[in-house]
Amino acid sequence: MASRSVLAIGIVVNTQEYAKSYAGNCINCTNCHLDGGLNPNTTSFVGLAAVYPEYRARNARVNTLADRVNECFERSLNGQALSADSSKLQAVVAYITWLSHGVLSGATIPWRASNALSHGYLSIPSMESACLRANALSVTASTARGR
Ligand code: HEC
User: Fold this and answer.
1) CB atoms inside a 10 Å sphere around CB 85
2) What is the CATH number for 41?
3) What is the DSSP string of 39-100?
4) What domain range includes position 110?
5) What mean pLDDT, rounded, does the chain reach?
């Protein structure tokens, strides 16, 4: 479990390193779900396992927590869904389940969908250009250091 948690936290805070092949842009989960999904004002992950599976009008079916995580991989990260048996997907689901320990199934989660960043959740393009600029700077810096 410990190593699975480490993997999950790695994926959430540094998606670009731990799940790069599934991300189509340069954003990490934590750029939107701040503090690794713990911040109550930016769509926190805490308690979410208690509300899934849940019907979603967007795709007109019941979604598991894994489906919802994959939706962010596909839409927010402009990438691709992980397969159901992927250890990475299972690690993220286990992490969110752990963050939901003791929350009763179907409970109303007061901080759910609270989102200080929205109305701007920073737009994905502006976030992307920010991280591309940061990446370019670090390349320039390492070139300057002769690496
Ligand atoms: C570009 C911003 C962005 C990124 C990056 C992002 N998400 Fe999301 N995520 C959202 C938004 C917006 C929502 C919907 C919030 C709402 O319903 O109010 C959401 C919703 C979710 C939900 C469901 C929340 C709920 O209340 O049901 C989960 C779980 C989730 N994201 C996981 C992830 C994971 C894991 C990653 C990284 C692999 C990720 N997200 C990356 C923006 C993002």
Assistant:
1) 7
2) 1.10.760.10
3) -TTB---TTGGGT-SEEETTTTEEE-HHHHHHHIIIIISS--PPPTT-HHHHHHHHHHHHTT
4) 2-144
5) 89
Q: What percent of the chain has pLDDT over 70?
A: 88
Neighbouring residues of 139: CB distance < 8 A, sequence distance ≥ 6: none
SS3 (DSSP) at 115: strand
- Number of separate domains in the chain: 1
Say if ligand 1 is within 6 A of residue 48 CB.
Answer: yes
Q: Is 100 in the pocket of ligand 1 (CB under 6 A)?
A: no
Residue 5 to residues 11, 17, 56, 66, 93: CA-CA distances in angstroms?
10, 16, 27, 16, 10
pLDDT in tens, 81-108: 999 999 999 999 999 999 999 999 999 9
Query: Would you state the pLDDT for residue 51?
Result: 97
Which residue puts its alpha carbon closest to atom 2 of ligand 1?
32
CA-to-CA distance for 14 and 10, rounded, in angstroms?
5
